[in-house]
Specification:
The complex is a heterodimer of chains A (339) and B (290). Chain A has helices spanning 3-36, 45-51, 57-91, 103-116, 123-147, 153-176, 179-185, 198-208, 211-217, 219-225, 229-234, 239-258, 267-279, 283-307, 316-338. Chain A is mostly helical and 339 residues long. Chain B is α/β, with parallel strands linked by helices. In chain B, the strands form 3 sheets. A 6-stranded mixed sheet of chain B has the order 6-7-8-3-9-10, sandwiched between helices. A 4-stranded antiparallel sheet of chain B has the order 2-1-4-5, covered by helices on one side. A two-stranded antiparallel ribbon of chain B has the order 11-12. In chain B, strand 1 (2-12) and strand 2 (15-26) form a beta hairpin. Classes of the chains: A mainly alpha (339), B alpha/beta (290).
């Protein structure tokens, strides 16, 4: 084939993936609309459109309950998925995610510690605690990855051990706390969107959304990390500095997703892989695609959790585990076969 | 352009691997860095690339200190073809090679970038595999993709760590012919670590023979890969014979009498020792020098 033909093929291929990305970006919107129309009260979409104009119960339910919950679901999914994509590139490990590395548990521990040890009442200090916890565990994992091959299973096993350690520490803290504090923290174990109101959603947005454009702008650095540290270095990336910056951003996004909803597992693992299957590993497309898939997955899982056994609500963390565990096994065994 | 490393000392922890080694690679020439396993070839290459910082010694590019260059600027001057082969994440060969354009592009790949990738793929003989997933390539094809990625980088200096180690005989000569072409026609300075002394003898303009972190000899193959030097450094008997206008290294029967005690000791070490390349002479008889 001649060079022009090769370029033509590549452009057509990239064009198709861009079209898929455009389609993906519509997905969370669709999920959000369905989510708004789903709930215990029998209000449908038409009632809402009607209710937007007037005050009354329908308006309160829409703007005060369902909308913040939906916004939180979209933000959480986006934060976990993008932070998962970053973890996977930074460690060059397809099994990495905020959940499997223990970063999410670290964030949960940080938030609970802020409430119980430091008596945090407002959202700000709780979020700060979650960020500190997430960052601490991320740095620990990076340190472990330096000792051992980051791409291997050892790092993931260490991450799972850290996840248990920080879950145990969180339980331990709860035995120390007052009944009221414990009540505020108990939902961290399940992952739950029902505690989120507008103030929480606003703070989560402030932690999750600003890193997104930064990551898309630095997408090439993420791409180069996939080629190995030495190659990335010879292609002009300051690998150590880049990795540090990325870990801070990923921790911030994880903390934003976790601190008001609890540990929602597997989204950070599953969503980036789904996005990669659809748009490839180029992070210029993968970051927005992961955000869209993650947002749609969490919103969808929340819809399922609210409607499958209605009026009972299945905690969202339970739904995502049903989705995520088989996928995790699939990744693990596909990898073993190749190795 | 001249890439020069002078008086490089390097240690990993307490193990000293380079003891004042020198290296020079010039535009228009293929320079081969040869030596047994563990002689410090890869370490010296990494120092020359700026990947490792030596304890003592300097690396210069046309007289400018390499450590003074910004990473992006260095990436437009030096390209590296490593041995190891990461991904494990799905990407096409074209995308893989496009990464080599990073030092030249801002965010969007321009038509010039795509053209450079297509040319690199063509030179590496991968043009028909452009959209194939990188992970589906054979070992040899992956090695060529690594080379193509470095070619796409369009640098005046190309550094390769054993670029032919997983290639069969025909692909070895293809890659070495390409490297000669790049040196002679495109004026690139090609520096490679070479396991295979015969390839070094046939294709390199200059050979730097490394022994235990020191340079034993440097210069054209006929003055460096002498039977005496090869016997001392590798502990094998050989002869350098011209065939159809290029030099070939052929192995002779082992008589250990002329091998020094030091090298004898090293040959007793476990693992792939200096005697590993027993098939070096096989390629003799055909000349691929353009």
């Amino acid at each position: 084939m001649d060079r022009a033909g090769t370029i033509q093929l590549f452009r057509a291929h990239a064009g198709r993936r861009l079209a898929v990305l455009a389609g993906l970006l519509a997905l969370p919107l669709l999920a959000a609309v369905v989510s708004l129309a789903t709930g215990a009260s029998r209000y449908g979409l038409a009632d809402f459109l009607d209710a937007l104009a007037r005050s009354g119960e329908a308006r309160d339910i829409l703007l005060g309950l369902r909308l913040p919950r939906t916004v939180m679901a979209v933000l959480t999914g986006c934060g976990l998925a993008v932070s998962g994509a970053v973890c996977q590139a930074v460690l060059r490990n397809p099994l990495a995610s905020p959940f499997t590395l223990g970063v999410a548990s670290g964030a949960g521990f940080g938030a609970v510690a802020a409430i119980i040890l430091f008596g945090a009442v407002h959202n700000g200090p709780v979020a700060a605690g979650a960020f500190a916890g997430a960052l601490g565990v991320s740095l620990l994992v990076l340190g472990l990855a330096r000792l051992r091959d980051a791409a291997g299973e050892t790092v993931i096993l260490s991450g799972v051990a850290l996840m248990y350690l920080f879950s145990a520490l969180t339980s331990f803290l709860q035995t120390l706390g007052s009944a009221e504090d414990v009540h505020r923290t108990v939902f961290w174990f399940f992952g739950n969107l029902s505690k989120a109101g507008w103030p929480e959603a606003a703070l989560a947005a402030a932690m999750i959304l600003p890193p997104l454009p930064l990551l898309v702008l630095r997408a090439w650095d993420l791409n180069l990390l996939l080629h190995g540290d030495e190659t990335a270095e010879t292609l002009g990336v300051n690998v150590a500095g880049m990795r540090g910056g990325l870990v801070v951003l990923a921790s911030l996004m994880t903390a934003g997703a976790i601190c008001f909803t609890g540990v929602i597992g597997f989204i950070g693992l599953v969503a980036p892989h789904m996005a990669r299957l659809l748009v490839g590993s180029d992070h210029r497309r993968l970051i927005p695609a992961s955000a869209a898939v993650g947002a749609a997955l969490v919103t969808g899982a929340d819809i399922a959790g609210r409607s499958l056994l209605a009026p009972q609500v299945i905690p969202i963390g339970v739904v995502t585990a049903f989705l995520g565990v088989p996928f995790f096994f699939f990744l693990l065994f596909a990898r073993r076969r190749r190795a | 352009m001249i890439l020069a490393a002078r008086g490089i000392h390097l240690a990993y922890g307490r193990r000293q691997v380079l003891h004042g080694a020198d290296l020079e690679a010039r535009s228009g020439q293929v320079t081969a860095l040869a030596g047994p396993n563990g002689s410090g070839k890869s370490s010296l290459l990494r120092c020359a690339l700026g990947l490792l910082r030596p304890e003592r010694g300097r690396v210069e590019l046309d007289g400018r200190d390499l450590s003074g260059l910004a990473p992006a600027e260095r990436a437009r001057l030096l390209a590296y073809v490593p041995q190891a082969v990461p991904p494990g994440f799905p990407m096409s060969v074209f995308e893989f090679v496009l990464a080599g354009r990073r030092p030249h592009l801002a965010w969007r790949a321009t038509a010039a970038d795509e053209e450079a990738v297509a040319l690199a793929l063509e030179r590496a003989g991968l043009e028909d595999l452009a959209l194939r997933p990188y992970d589906h390539l054979s070992g040899g094809q992956k090695q060529k993709a690594l080379l193509a990625r470095a070619l796409a980088q369009s640098t005046p200096v190309l550094v390769l760590d054993e670029p032919t180690s997983s290639l069969d005989l025909r692909h070895q000569t293809e890659v070495m012919d390409l490297l000669r072409f790049l040196a002679v026609e495109a004026g690139i300075a090609v520096l490679l670590a070479a396991h295979d002394l015969n390839l070094a003898a046939r294709f390199a303009d200059r050979v730097i023979l490394l022994e235990q972190g020191r340079v034993r000899a440097a210069g054209p193959p006929q003055s460096t890969l002498t039977p005496e030097n090869v016997a001392l450094v590798f502990g094998v008997r050989c002869a350098l014979v011209p065939v159809e206008g290029s030099l070939h290294l052929v192995h002779l029967h082992q008589t250990i009498t002329e091998v020094s005690h030091e090298t004898l000791d090293r040959r007793m070490e476990p693992g792939p020792g200096p005697g590993r390349g027993s098939g070096h002479g096989r390629g003799a008889g055909r000349s691929h020098r353009p």
